[in-house]
Design goal:
Shape: globular
Strand order of the largest sheet: 1-2-3
Strand content: under 5%
Largest sheet: 3 strands, antiparallel
Helix content: 25-40%
Amino acid sequence: MVTAPTAPADATTKSPLVEAADDGAQPDEAPEAELVATQPIAAHAVDDALLPVVSEARAVDAGDAAPVVAGEVVSVVPVVAALGPTAMPAFQGAVVARDAQAWPFAMTCASLTHCADDAGLCCYACLCLECAAAEVSAKIGNRGWCGTESCAAQWCAAYLTAAAVSTLGLCVVGLGAVLAPCVWTVWLAQIRNAQKAVYRLPHDELCCDATVTSTLPWYFLCLDCACCAVYQQAFYLKHVAKKDLECCCYQCCCASCHPIDLHETTASLLT
């Protein structure tokens, strides 16, 4: 479910605008504009509680013909909010995209079919999934478990929450190893929903429009789509929104990775 917070009447919001696809716009158009005060937005309940979009008249999909406009403040409720109060805060942020955006490539199997597009980023998303997700979350202004904000704090909060759930689950029902990965699932789904809301991106999930299906633990479907989803999100931030990731592990180890290097390394090991 998505709601929209009420902004003070004298408040103004400024937000960077993501460049839309080349649609013949004149080069002298201003890339940024001052946005007027946001007004309360009427939010309506929808069947899928994962839809992170609000319009003045009705709830719509991210790529619908009547989306929110840049500058409107939206709130994305965590997927576990229906279960009661949680330590995962709702995301609140201003939409920054002027027009409906599109993902650079499909999420499904992205780490295999589009790894060559940015091999370093792909390796980072696959080998250090949680760190990459934490960076994406911090850069879009999303908060993690217990309201943490920075990249490191969000990672630590998620790790400690998962450890607590694992310990409690092991002691109470003996299913700690099964329940703990769901902590990451909820956090990753919240990050993805927040990014779709801010940049007006369409749903591109494993099953229908349910974001959580793209972040489920591997044992649900015997496959892990989370690394593909995070790679798609990080690729969009880096190459479309121009917000490159800054983790030392990524910059020092993964950023220099290139498909040609991988091929040469494999060939040298076989000879």
